[in-house]
Amino acid sequence: PAKSVELYRLAGSEDAIQQRLVFPDSREIVRNVFARYTSEQGYATDREKINAEIGTLVKERLAPRGIDVTTVNLRNVKPSEALQDQIDRKIQQQQATERATEAARTAKAEADRRRIEAEGIARANRILNDSLTDKVLMNQCIDAFKEAAAKNPVYTVPCANGASAPVIVDGSKR
């Protein structure tokens, strides 16, 4: 209130105060603050921080003239088409990088799972190989021979090392 007469004398009306004092100073402050940030920060990541900084500077600039600024809202601040395209491309690249990183992590986990599975199979094969002897194999062969003999005619054929190994022959087929 103490500065209102001076403001009206200087500018003439409320609209003129806004056009001559508030808008030019505000625009200058907005340009200066945005110049200190990258375009991505200004239009995406640090928008709230920038808004607070602009609010503080506008209040400080206009207070000596008797203009009391209560809040400053950044709205309709839009980058140029080229800058918006650049920001969009960067965001898409970041998303593609994140997807590729996730795919690589998934592929690594799958490769680890397959390696562990293969190591388990290899260990099982080593244990089986170590436990199989000619006598165990011959015993399994004899058991199979007995099973087959119960159903079909079976013949034995001499095998290597002079041993006889049962060979199952289906007598119904010639």
Q: Your description of this structure?
A:
This protein has 174 residues and is mainly alpha-helical. The chain contains six helices and two strands, in the order H-H-H-H-H-H-E-E. The protein has helices spanning 4-11, 14-35, 39-45, 47-62, 81-131, 134-149; strands at residues 155-158, 164-167. It has a two-stranded antiparallel sheet. The mean pLDDT is 80.
Brief account:
With 174 residues, the chain is mainly α.
The average pLDDT is 80
Record field, number of beta strands: 2
Q: Strand portion, in percent?
A: under 5%
Biggest sheet architecture: 2 strands, antiparallel
Q: Order of strands across the widest beta sheet?
A: 1-2
Q: How many DSSP H or I helices?
A: 6
Helix content: 55-70%
Spatial shape: rod-shaped
| Structural classification | mainly alpha
**Which ranges are low-confidence, i.e. pLDDT below 50, for 5 or more consecutive residues?**
none
Radius of gyration: 43 Å
Domain module count: 3
Distance between the termini: 120 Å
SSE order, as H and E? HHHHHHEE
Keywords, separated by commas or semicolons:
rod-shaped; mainly alpha; 6 helices; two-stranded antiparallel sheet; 174 residues; 3 domains
